Amino acid sequence: MPSASKSGTSSRINTQLLLVIAGVALAGLLSRLLESSGGNAAWMTAFLDSAHRFAVGFERIFLETTPFLLLGAFTSAVIANVFSDAEIQALFQGRTLRSVIIGILAGFTLPVGDGGSVLVARQLLRKGASLPAAAALMVAGPGVTLVAVGAGLGANGMIGLAGLRFATAVIFALVFGLILAQESEPERIIKIGNLPAAGGDSVSVLEGGRHVSKAKAITLTASIEFLEWMPLLVIAALLGGLLQALIPGGWIPPVQGSAAWQNAGSGLWAILTAQSAVGDLYTVQNNLANWSTSAQRTYLLVGMAVDVKLILFYGRIFRRKALLYWIMLSLSLSLLAGLAIESFGGLH
Amino acid sequence: MKRNVQIKFFALALAVLGLFQLSLIWDGRLVDYVDPRQGMLVFLTGLGCVILAQVVLSTAGTRVSRSVENEDSEENPDSGSDRAASGLIWLVVPLLVFLLFR
What we know:
heterodimer, A: mainly alpha, 15 helices, 74% helix, B: mainly alpha, 5 helices, globular
């Protein structure tokens, strides 16, 4: 891109950013003023309620995702600086069932979950891993990572639901990986331009420098990758928080009405709250008595596959069409899984 | 020199983010946002960010002595480090939300 055009785009983004910051600051100051005024007009109560929902929704998405993003950045940095391209290609090779299974196994063993698995998959793609393997790791990560499995085993009464989520994540990844294996030109699926620099991002910062220890190179690469993805997380948290504040209170679980309404409300709430694979388990556990069984299942399955932040993160790697396929696939498979479980008498 | 400033900027951002997360635990407001059982994850992330900041800053120290000989090195405007540096201002938003909203 020519430098004049690049600087124009950059200044436009900076202006938008300043507007966002000013908007958040104004809304925050207004809520403080209204709170201290002590008034109880209906519009004041509604505004304060929405402001509170926005703040809680925003900070929850931000705080729950940051640990996984940091873990993903570290893992990605280790892959960039410790493993050679040939080693990665030997392991994550080909467009076969084997490569998809290896991708899922890597998602299970590597300490990466929501968001973090995207950074790792991106690094693997840069090093020449096959698309089905990297995509399988990316989409299975939130549901099968050891951190999420450990939380499920440790949470009282959640083993069944955590096991169901694990199995569903594996099936999602298998189906999606095998679909992508049919595509022989990865550039039609992924955005090649968004892959990280060769040898880790620290190379561009330390360019031309003398020998730097591997540990420092890993740390620097991890920091750069972590901070590079941070704006996307903040945007996701802003979107999620704003939408949570705007939707009618009756749509928030437990939704009254038929089972279909309850599931729809639960699925929508899972997409908007964008909780981590640990946080959503705790939310369901805290609401075991209030939410219907199918609403609990929907919340866990939809939240693991598609939510505000995951859509933004996956959109950094996948082209729009592939992203749309993933969203449609995971939503329809969640629905089918729910129907199948219901027809066999539910989950006990 | 620009790279050296960039590294220090990374370190500052990481330190602020780490201290922000640790402060949430310190004053107990963490429970307003997430289940308290996730406190350990948030604590470790805060601590990790502060440690990362320290290590990154030490890398900047190394760079000071090298900056003269590397001043002419070609810069890649599309690198992840540039994207990271230009996006750091976004970190203001979580702090604003935390400070202004109740």
